[in-house]
Design goal:
The longest helix is centred in the first third of the chain and has 18 residues. It is globular and about 75 Å long. By secondary structure, the chain is mainly β. It has 2 helices and 40 strands. It is about 5% helix and about 60% strand. The protein has a 22-stranded antiparallel barrel. A 5-stranded mixed beta sheet has the order 3-9-10-7-8. It has a 3-stranded antiparallel beta sheet with strand order 4-5-6, with no helix packed on it.
């Protein structure tokens, strides 16, 4: 019976696994007490470039003193660039690409990322919020209303971060509550009947204890497109987020407790068939965002997180305990219907995913003469369940509707240590190592053929043990110029393909990264110039491949990557600044013989793509932001504009159906009262209404599908502080 059904499962699982590419509600890895919240500690008034404190090495350090390529953005920079969520970061971070589908981001840094089949496939670019790693695939869409700063660490971070940070780390650092009570509110309205409202309130509760509450609401009530079968809007969304942080600060103790709740609903997988796909031959044209589905697609998420951090000064060192619990629910529906009358559902799938994650980390951080050191251990548990009912004409009359389901869990234990030794006042050597043990197993895997019975599959288990490390040498040429070289090894853990009940599993992928960098403050801090050149040797790449009965993850390729990152900020005169980000990238598969390929008409094949460009790796990416502040007697005015360019990239290893290059323009005009308590902003994004794509997905047997990114949007925002 399995052989009879495999043809139907091929279509069903190829669709579901192509769509299930998920990752993360994020965090940051730094001790809040050791990372001052002021990002202008060393700035010379408003005339020089601000000195940003980052936690790229799990302690608070100046961005210019850290021998790691980091793009860091303050809260003001985030606002000026029109960044409202993590999906927009690719517009301002060199060599970052962010394909998106439903409520899920798929980040790629320097050509390294993951488009795997969901389940246990954690992303290669790990995301952290306030030092806590969050693995749930359905928690990747972050919105920003209580952010202190953002840090994007580039290259493998296999020692201090560890969890699958082959490509890098996105860190979100939120504000700490203050004893002084104050509140910030804003409400806005934009086209497509979009309402946004934000509130942030903080104050003292008792001596040494402060708390805050951040509330965020977003509702886009009109969709960008239409479901031409039902006549209803698609590409609209609604979210609500609640976050609270409580901080107790004593003489030698700091305790931080946080909780968050996010709930959202969006169109989800509103996949549109491209012209020329076999499945739409003879059908009428589609608008930019229109789809044809017999039912309304949807994507619903609910995420709950709670974290506790205890920091205790011991004299010789600081002890840190970090505990996290996460509960994540995801449900989505997608439908492939005939594209001309009579409209019939060919394949429909409802996916229910539930995940719970538990993490415990212990650290010791200290300084002994010329040596700064830290050691730690990280314990991680991830429980996962998937339940998928399939139906549609593709399964009639045999086998008819069926349900696939599976439970699984991932356990990980790692120990690590890193030290930086000052060989001289100017020359420092850093060495770190981490050892990780991972175990992934599934149970209760079965297919329930409702017309013919249940087929059970054997439980599976896979383990891996891998070391990772970092070596770096940095030299302070002058007080304002730092140079460094580094060698890092990172891994992305192996696992099991949840959607294929018979695959034996896949091994960890491995990346060796070589980097040379320069960080400089020039011309009395009028210019900040940071640049890094890098070369990657990439082995055992985990890639998603469709078999005869499922989409699975295999180790199928080697690659090499080299390129350049540049971050430049210039403040030539008071109140005027220009920021430039530039990424150059050459990322190719060295050997990849068995790559999946789907032609425009839907015909599947396996091809040799050795020498092809890697996915989501444009040769050039960059942005320019100019901001001018105009103080007047009636308040301060601000004008800011950002131009972003992305070169051509490819969604699949066969290099078919590329993402076209594009250029976007965002702008903001604002006024703030003289006392800083009231303000109004006019904003616009994608002002030239450029068509570009969030994702392109090939579906064997049907053809090529795509989802267009948002069109021109604009609105007004009123702001108040008390």
């Amino acid at each position: 019976m399995i052989g009879t059904v495999s043809r139907h499962l091929y279509v069903a699982t190829a669709l579901s696994a192509s769509l299930m590419s998920f990752s993360v509600n994020a965090q940051t890895t730094g001790q809040p007490d050791m990372a001052p919240q002021s990002d202008a500690d060393s700035a010379q008034g408003n005339n020089g470039v601000q000195d940003i404190v980052v936690t790229a090495q799990r302690i608070g350090e100046s961005l210019q003193k850290v021998p790691i390529a980091v793009t860091a953005l303050t809260a003001d920079a985030i606002s000026d660039r029109g960044i409202t969520g993590s999906s927009a970061l690719e517009a301002v971070v060199p060599n970052l690409s962010m394909s998106r589908i439903g409520g899920v981001n798929q980040p790629f840094l320097r050509g390294v990322g993951s488009d795997g089949a969901g389940g246990f496939d954690e992303k290669s670019v790990a995301t952290y919020v306030d030092g806590f790693y969050i693995a749930a695939p359905s928690s990747t869409q972050l919105s920003f209303n209580n952010i202190q700063r953002l840090e994007v660490l580039k290259g493998p971070q296999g020692t201090l971060f560890g969890r699958n940070a082959t490509g890098g780390v996105i860190q979100v650092v939120t504000k700490d509550p203050t004893q002084d009570p104050h509140a910030e509110f804003d409400v806005g309205y934009g086209n497509y009947s979009t309402v946004d409202a934000n509130a942030y309130v903080t104050g003292g509760i008792a001596q040494g204890l402060a708390a805050d509450l951040a509330v965020q609401y977003h509702n886009q009530d009109d969709g960008f497109g239409t479901n031409l079968i039902t006549g209803r809007d698609v590409n609209k969304d609604r979210t609500i987020s609640l976050r609270s942080k409580w901080v107790y600060t004593g003489d030698t103790t700091k305790i931080t407790l946080f909780g968050s709740y996010d709930k959202g609903r969006s169109c989800g997988f509103c996949l549109q068939f491209q012209p020329g796909s076999a499945f739409v031959t003879g059908a009428g044209p589609l608008g930019r965002y229109d789809v044809r589905m017999t039912k309304e697609p949807y994507f619903r998420t609910k995420n709950i997180f709670a974290g506790l951090r205890i920091e205790q000064e011991l004299g010789f060192a600081t002890f840190v305990s970090s505990t996290l619990y996460g509960d994540n629910d995801l449900e989505y529906y997608s439908d492939i219907a005939t594209q001309s009358p009579p409209y019939v559902s060919v394949l429909g799938v409802v996916t229910h995913e539930k995940a719970k994650e538990y993490a415990q980390e212990f650290q010791l951080l200290g300084e002994s003469g010329p040596l700064k050191w830290q050691v730690g251990t990280y314990l991680f548990r991830y429980d996962y369940n998937i339940f998928q009912p399939f139906d549609g004409a593709a399964f009639s009359p045999v086998p008819g509707p069926f349900i696939t389901q599976s439970d699984g869990r991932k356990d990980s234990v790692s120990v690590y240590g890193q030290g930086t030794y000052a060989l001289t006042d100017e020359l420092k050597f850093t060495a770190g190592i981490r050892y990780t043990y991972d175990k992934v197993e599934t149970d209760n895997s079965k297919i329930d053929f409702q017309n013919t019975g249940i087929v059970n599959f054997a439980d599976r288990k896979i383990t891996s043990k891998k070391p990772t490390w970092r070596l770096a040498l940095d030299y302070q040429v002058t007080p304002e110029i730092l140079t460094y070289v580094s060698y890092n090894r990172g891994i992305k853990t192996g696992g099991l393909s949840v959607n294929d009940f018979t695959s034996s599993g896949y091994a960890p992928e491995q990346l060796d990264a070589y980097e040379v960098g320069l960080k400089a403050n020039l011309f009395d801090r009028a210019v900040r110039f940071n640049a890094a050149g890098f070369y990657y040797d990439y082995k055992n790449l985990q890639v998603s491949i469709a078999s005869s009965s499922a989409a699975i993850i295999l180790n199928a390729a080697t690659a090499r990557v080299y390129g350049l990152d540049v971050d430049l900020e210039v403040r030539p005169v008071k109140n005027f600044s220009v920021s430039v980000g530039l990424g150059l990238l050459d990322s190719k598969y060295k050997k990849f013989v068995g790559a999946p390929s789907v032609a425009l008409d839907g015909t599947p094949s396996v091809v040799d793509v050795s020498g092809n460009r890697s996915i989501n790796a444009p040769k050039i990416s960059g942005s320019v932001t100019a901001t001018y502040e105009i103080p007047t007697s009636v308040g301060d005015f601000k004008v800011s504009g950002t131009v972003t360019h992305k070169g051509k990239a490819f969604p699949t290893p066969d290099n078919l159906n590329p993402y076209p290059e594009y250029t976007l323009v965002n702008a903001l005009i604002g006024w703030t009262s003289s006392d800083g308590n009231l303000g109004v902003e006019l904003w616009g994004r994608n002002l030239t209404d450029r068509t570009y794509y969030a994702i392109r997905v090939p579906i064997a047997g049907f053809g090529q599908t795509q989802v267009a990114s948002p069109p021109r949007t604009y609105g007004v925002r009123l702001k108040a502080k008390f």
